[in-house]
Amino acid sequence: MKRFVVFLFFILFKANLYPDENIIIGTEEGIYSKNLFGYEKIPILTNEKIIDIAATDNGYYFLSENGLYLSKDLKQYVKLENGIRKDRFIIEEDHIFRVIEKDKRFKRIKIDKNNPQNIIIYSKKDIYISTNSGEIWQKLTIYINEITAAEISSENKTINIYISHPYNGIFLYNFQKKSIKNISKGINKFNAFFYNDISDINFINGEIYATSFFERELYKFDKKKFSWENIQTIEKDEEVIYSFGNIEDKICFVMSDSIEGNEVIQDVAIDIFEIANVVPYCVLIDKKFSFSSLEILFEEENENFYRLKANNRKGIYISPYALLKRKNNIENFIPIMEKKGLNTIVLDMKDDYGYLHYKPDDPDIKKIAKTLYPVDIDKIVRIAREKNIYLIARIVVFKDSVLYKYNNYEYAVRDKRDNSPWVGMKTNELNETNNIKEYWVDPYNTSVWKYIVAIANELVKKGFDEIQFDYIRFPTDGLNLKYATFPAQNGFTKEEAIFSFLRYAREHIDAPISIDIYGNNGWYRSGGVTGQDVELLADYVDVICPMFYPSHFDQRFLNYEPFDKRPYRIYYYGTLRTYHMARKKIIPRPYVQHFRLNVSYDREYYNEEYISNEIKGIEDSVNMGYIFWNMEGKY
After folding, report:
1. Region 77-93 average pLDDT
2. Rounded to 10 degrees, what is the CA torsion of 139, 142, 143, 145?
3. Within its chain, how far is the Cα of 110 from the centroid?
4. Which of 179, 521, 598, 626 has a 20 to 30 Å separation from 575 between CA atoms?
């Protein structure tokens, strides 16, 4: 009996000290393992959000938001960062702005199964490679500005890296030759325009496989034909494939609401969430089967206060000019709102030219601002409260002629040729060069940020429920765009500027924050030249409002039979794509085209059914709200 008690004590002691290495789970607050008694937290990296896990004979590799770590025994660890550049942000502390460096936000770690010393880690912009198990890293020189997935595989002493782009397909990079070529033959195209968005690439049992994000296709690469073959399509229309892997020779898919192919992985994810009360991000089974993106199954459980407040808001946009025509009487819009079951008004408080449409109280704002057609905010707020209407203040951010001209063009974008204030130029039919008449201020300038956020806070104080930023981007138009320069840039990228501003805004505005973006940026996982990257913006805002106006897309886009259902298709797929590009972290609230533009499709099809098809597309997709847009207020 005594010997049995000692033996049992030894088992209990050993189980608590040594985790079951068959199942290792990365969570939002560290690493867990599954042992005889359930789930045990491993006492390393306890405050890290573990995004991905891989293992070799060299040990366990843990990728977190703060970098990559190696642990040989799950007791101690080292950080692997030699050669990796950090990202830079501008933050404000004690009313002083300063530059900080943060570890680059890598998405995945991939290990060469033919030679485990070869490892890559990648973010949306960069791929780093190590050929000595992570001791030293070098950045690949590739000219792919957006990366959705990558994989590494060596063969005959050649290291191949497969890289996918949101709409340009898959590329093959030869590490030794430093050469790259597009190998997208066989990948389906969306509406014959762009290749389907690839979400993950994996080397499995000697073969290369890839999955498309929204179309839920599984491809296998034929090295002889140098072409991809679609071998499976998952028929779940409202789900997408975030990642995939294999276990026991079976390919398993991490979908937006389920895991297809293996119940064990889903059971582990649900158990750790329900029992340990933590969100799982990844799992490693038997040191070789790795699955990521598990957090997507639980994202909707993590609603914050601002998102709950902003959800299911459906309404109209009213410009101050439209309100002026109705003698500043917002009550004129109430009957149609009640008839259509709408509960929200978006009102311009700082317009496309930088004019305020209210009288500010803050002396710092009054020093700069100019007011035009001010509205009676007190009356509007009173009526909104009586009618249970949600009020959103639209603020145009970086396009601002008032701030552009202030104090001898102190905050203006500059022309690098002579340091004069820059303005975009275009040519007309007579080949004459004219000013576009869009005036942009420097998005890197923190004084601009303070001015914008001060206006937002004053409007919240006056009774607005939500702040909506528009033109939160860089200038994109003009024959002379290449000469635009930004005095406060100081080595920062466009994305770093946008994210730093939004981080500052989020820390200082006690209300939901929404942003307006191009419809194209809500469709593809690509920020392009604007800095509007939905996947990354989702960390800083509560609502994203893509402008999926059918008139603004190429007129051939999604234009097939039945032709009159094109608005439905654009809003159905667009809303779904925005939501999943943001990894379900935000509320997608599209702007609905409630105007006719003189383009071929609108000339033939614009009518009431056009608008109702837009709405039905949203309601059949991710039904979290929408706003009608008409500059003249004709609803």
Report:
1. 90
2. -50
3. 22
4. 598
Q: Which amino acid is at 528?
A: G
Query: What spatial distance separates the first Cα and last Cα of the chain, rounded to whole Å?
Result: 85
The mean-pLDDT minimum among 328-332, 395-399, 619-623 falls in 328-332
H or E, element range at 31: strand 30-35
For 225-244, write each residue's pLDDT tens digit.
999 999 999 998 889 999 99
Is the distance from CB of 548 to CB of 570 less than 8 angstroms? yes
Q: What is the tens place of the pLDDT at every residue in 28-77? A: 999 999 876 788 999 999 989 999 999 999 999 999 999 999 999 999 99
The pair of three-digit structure tokens given for residue 342, joined into one six-digit string: 């709408």
Note whether 450 and 397 are within 8 A (CB): no
Domains of the chain: 305-629 (3.20.20.80)
Q: What count of residues does the chain have?
A: 635
Using CA atoms, how far apart are residues 256 and 243, in angstroms rounded to an integer?
10
Paired tokens of 109? 């770690």
**Which amino acid is present at 107?**
K
| Four-point Cα dihedral 332, 337, 343, 345, nearest 10 | -50
CB-CB contact of 473 with 516 (8 Å): no
Nearest-Å Rg of the Cα atoms of the chain is 27
Residues 560 and 595 sit within 8 Å (Cβ to Cβ): no
Rounded to whole angstroms, what are the CA distances from 617 to 88, 361, 546? 39, 42, 14
